[in-house]
């Protein structure tokens, strides 16, 4: 189990590594083509779409993995996940339209950017790929998932190069990012279809909860809601901060924070890869789950320490080389966010263990309470410390969440 988990993690981290390198390419192109203010406005528009998708979508890949371990059950789990994705598209589209057209000046998106932002949000909703991701993971096809995942960064980097030369404006960059989303979703669905025939006839919101409920004391919806709320909190603690920084400090400050996050939260992507690779193994072998989680946590701690040290030594040089000296204010926020991501990396296996035991609501509470506290403190911290204040919100949230995960994982269940 340990070997397979490490192999799967390796595939995901390999894809993350490729994406990280390419993300530096398109980050450099976007920051230099748009400038401090323009890049900040682009970041706010892009973040709005991510927020809508994050707040209206479900972690359907976890449902596919949890209830799709056998071929007989997988069709039902996939049909349930597809129905949830359809619900996301409808809900997200309505929410985005209402917010963009009814919001006043409090929403830091310029009036002339609201229609492009809405169209990009719609594309992002249509490009949801959580369900095919779950199908690939339940079959241990992590190499295929890694190849599909790399499509986003390849398309963004190539498109950003063209746009930076011929049409260096915010709308053009949004078009490129939208094409990348559609291409990635198409690749995921193609890979999933190559792995297993997808039975669309089982499209249903009621079948799986009814069948799983009979076997598991009606906890199917509790699990789905809990994992979705936890995903929403991850979005809130990261992406919502970008939007709020733009609202409280302006587009330029949002751009600085985004650069810091892009460079400093690389470990967070590794944490997400670790969670996604380890979770199926913990579901399959609950007897050895705690031992595997402990080993993966020790590996994560060492990795986090090395990356933070590298950031302290070379951080300023990296920022100047990629984004330019105008973004040097991102240095300390980057270090703080790297520390927060290192904590998340060390707690990823513990979170996977909690989810494997079906305790999604507990996981939501462990993230929800610290996130609420951090968001309440955000206006004062941004006013006093700028982008570093927003980064401290993320760090404080991670400290409290991972501490809670450690405490809960050590308590014996009744």
TrEMBL record:
InterPro entries: Poly_Biosynth_Transport (IPR050833), Polysacc_synth (IPR002797). The chain crosses the membrane at residues 45-65, 77-103, 115-136, 157-180, 240-260, 299-324, 330-355, 364-382, 388-408. One of its GO terms (cellular component) is plasma membrane. Keywords: Cell membrane, Membrane, Transmembrane, Transmembrane helix. The keyword Transmembrane helix applies. It is found in: Cell membrane. It is a multi-pass membrane protein. The keyword Cytoplasm does not apply. Its main location: membrane. PANTHER family: INNER MEMBRANE PROTEIN YGHQ, PST FAMILY PREDICTED COLANIC ACID TRANSPORTER. This is Lipopolysaccharide biosynthesis protein. It comes from Aurantiacibacter zhengii.
């Amino acid at each position: 189990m340990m070997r397979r988990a490490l192999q799967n993690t390796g595939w995901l981290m390999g894809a993350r590594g490729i994406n990280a390198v390419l993300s530096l390419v398109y980050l450099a192109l976007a920051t230099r083509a748009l400038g401090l203010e323009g890049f900040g406005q682009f970041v706010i528009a892009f973040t709005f779409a991510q927020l809508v998708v994050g707040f209206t979508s479900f972690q359907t890949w976890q449902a596919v993995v949890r209830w799709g371990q056998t071929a007989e059950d997988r069709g039902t789990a996939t049909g349930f996940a597809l129905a949830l994705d359809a619900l996301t598209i409808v809900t997200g589209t309505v929410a985005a339209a209402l917010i963009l057209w009814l919001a006043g000046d409090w929403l830091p998106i310029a009036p002339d950017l609201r229609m492009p932002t809405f169209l990009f949000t719609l594309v992002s909703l249509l490009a949801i790929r959580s369900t095919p991701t779950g199908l690939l993971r339940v079959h241990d096809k992590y190499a295929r998932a890694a190849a599909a995942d790399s499509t986003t960064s390849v398309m963004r980097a190539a498109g950003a190069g063209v746009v930076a030369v011929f049409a260096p404006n915010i709308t053009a960059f949004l078009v490129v990012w939208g094409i990348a989303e559609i291409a990635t979703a198409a690749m995921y669905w193609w890979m999933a279809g190559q792995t297993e025939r997808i039975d669309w006839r089982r499209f249903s919101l009621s079948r799986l909860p009814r069948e799983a409920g009979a076997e598991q004391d009606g906890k199917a919806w509790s699990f789905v809601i809990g994992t979705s709320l936890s995903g929403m909190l991850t979005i809130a603690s990261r992406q919502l901060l970008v939007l709020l920084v733009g609202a409280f400090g302006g587009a330029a400050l949002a751009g600085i924070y985004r650069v810091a996050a892009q460079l400093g939260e690389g470990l967070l992507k590794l944490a997400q890869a670790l969670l996604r690779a380890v979770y199926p193994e913990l579901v399959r072998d609950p007897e050895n789950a705690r031992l595997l989680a402990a080993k993966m946590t020790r590996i994560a701690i060492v990795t986090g320490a090395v990356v933070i040290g590298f950031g302290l030594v070379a951080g300023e040089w990296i920022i100047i080389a990629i984004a330019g000296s105008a973004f040097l204010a991102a240095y300390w926020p980057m270090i703080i966010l790297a520390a927060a991501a290192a904590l998340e990396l060390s707690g990823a296996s513990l979170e996977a263990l909690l989810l494997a035991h079906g305790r999604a609501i507990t996981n939501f509470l462990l993230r929800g309470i610290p996130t609420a506290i951090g968001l309440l403190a955000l206006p004062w911290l941004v006013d006093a410390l700028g982008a570093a204040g927003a980064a401290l919100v993320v760090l404080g949230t991670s400290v409290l969440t991972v501490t809670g995960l450690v405490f809960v994982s050590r308590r014996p269940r009744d």
